[in-house]
Amino acid sequence: MAGGRFRDQEIDDDLARSQFEELASARVEEQNWIIDSTRTMLMNFYHAEPVNAFFGLRNTKPMRERIRNREIIIYRGGGDVSNEDDMIMSNAILAEALHTQLTMPREERVPLFIIADEAPQLRPCHHLLERTLKIC
Questions:
Q1: pTM of the full structure
Q2: Is 46 strand, coil or helix?
Q3: What is the DSSP-derived secondary structure letter of residue 71?
Q4: Separation between Cα atoms, residue 88 and residue 92, nearest integer Å
Q5: Alpha helices for 2-125 (secondary structure H)
Q6: Concatenated DSSP letters of 51-64
């Protein structure tokens, strides 16, 4: 999709640009409510147990070690994680696994099997999936 401008900034993402335009056109009270709501959503996301584990705030192994050991990684959303947070976590885990595989020296690579439910939810990682399939 073609990019556009918001004020003096070039924004290639149409959705992000429309969100900035909506925020800019809102009254100050509405802007404050949107910002507070977003802050609350992000704080809830970062305090969720799966997110803490993913970002290494709990005792977890690095993805490279998990791949080398051919470990099975299971991510189950739900619980205290919202659908939006679940989508973010799913994509973050998939992106880390794919990026790790792509940056490993070829001689160290081992087969990486990914079984993903709800594939449309993983749309942000499609470019990484395509690149991985072409290179590996």
A1: 0.56
A2: helix
A3: -
A4: 6
A5: 14-25, 28-47, 49-54, 63-68, 83-103
A6: HHHHTTSSS---HH
76-to-49, 87, 90, 104 alpha-carbon distances in Å: 12, 11, 9, 26
Residues 18-40: tens digit of each pLDDT: 877 888 888 889 988 988 888 88
Rg of the chain over all Cα atoms, to the nearest angstrom: 18
Return the C-alpha torsion angle 11, 14, 17, 22, nearest 10.
170
pLDDT in tens, 51-72: 776 666 666 678 888 888 988 8
86 vs 2, residue with greater confidence: 86
Kindly state the average pLDDT of the residues 99-105.
Answer: 86
Rounded Cα gap, residues 10 and 38, in angstroms:
23
Distance CA 37, CA 17 (A): 19
